[in-house]
Amino acid sequence: HHAGKFYLRIEDTDRKRSTKQAIKAITDGLQWLGLSWDGDEIYQSENQERHVKIAKILLDQDLAYPCYCSPNELAEMREQARAKGLQPRYDGRWRDRDPAEAPPGVKPSIRFKAPKDGATVIHDSVQGCVEVDNQQLDDMIILRADGTPTYMLSVVVDDHDMGVTNVIRGDDHLTNAFRQTQLYRALGWDEPTFAHVPLIHGSDGTKMSKRHGSLAINAYQEMGFLPSALRNYLLRLGWSHGDEEIIDTDKAIEWFDLQGVGRAPSRFDYNKLESLNGHYLRELKDDQAVDLIEPALSDRLRHKLTEEQRNRLHAGIAGLKPRAKTLVQLAENSFFYIAPRPINIESKAAKFLDDNAKAYLLELANELQDVTDWNKENIENLIRDFANSRTLKLGLVAQPLRASLTGMTVSPSIFEVMVALGRFETLARLRDL
Where are the domains of the chain? Predict the structure, then answer.
């Protein structure tokens, strides 16, 4: 829609947190969601030499300065600020101090000389015109005492060098944007257009946490959600296009614009996500649905599905898709099609299989044996005639039949189930009683 490029930059300046496992979770999650990026992923740490060079340029131009504060001094500043009910901040004690006064043997950090007068103004694509009084921002560290650059400097340098024109992120980064804007202006670089979108809150309106279902992307994959459904749901959180609820990827690309993003936090509704996922599940082709649940079924069986099992699953999947909201539910509901004999019969279903019912079912099996054309119409007609000839209500035959063939009390139409199972498997299960 905007003919732009989507870069994936791994901001790994914090080496302790940027583990291979954490990075893999990011790339795997994006790939599963179908959010592919342009080119190779970029690692911020590989550009460290450039970041350090820019820090030294700022230092040489008197736009930054060495700070020799000890950890104890910084801790004391934080405590004093808290005691006064203020935000912890650096007090600027080395800003104009002569470096000749530096304590011997202490390696300094490098701090940016933030402007103290006036305000920093940002024209944000979502938040509008926002500003902060420069007195509220302290002099941030851009180079640590060990010589490594901080995130705040690195992200500005990388965005500039990569030609980034638009930065879209959560509104919890708004304060960062003020600091980064000051760096851009100090360096004489063009600023990107910022768009700070509202964060997602829990269903109760409070900040998202694990108790709200705030999980990593791979957790939603494991819970059986489809990437298309999750993309659609996340897109609609805080953005709208009229009354449209179902928005596929092509429409999303065509319609999305930052002007449609609201400023108020959206609320994560798990039930709504599940319902939306059910829609996308029903839209799957039968082959797709089988392919998606086959790994889980194979794990449960501890072997790959045989051709016969897969054929039964494929024949019955259409009747199961409308009954499930997640792939996990679909796999669970469809297991009876591929279950080894004798199938497990749930306790509720077993109540329908008393001696009289078993006797009826064995008689029915003998009559079904003679059905030449195994289709729904022929099977249904035979079973109805069987019930009528014995003055039985259809339910008194159908429910025990369901219990014996599926092991459950609820399933798609029992006639559809019998067609999907096929003659051999149907008769074999009836005779296992």
Answer: 9-197, 210-283, 285-340, 342-433
**What is residue 242's predicted lDDT score, i.e. its pLDDT?**
85
| pTM given for the model | 0.88
Weakly modelled stretches of the chain, pLDDT under 70: 1, 210-214
pLDDT score at 88: 87
Domain covering 210-283 assigned CATH 1.10.1160.10 in the classification: yes
Contacts of 421 (CB under 8 A, 6+ apart): 312, 316, 337, 405, 429
What is the CATH class of 342-433? mainly alpha
**Active-site annotation, residues:** 210
Mean pLDDT, the chain, integer = 94
Write down the pLDDT at residue 17.
Answer: 79
The topology under which CATH files domain 9-197 is Rossmann fold (3.40.50)
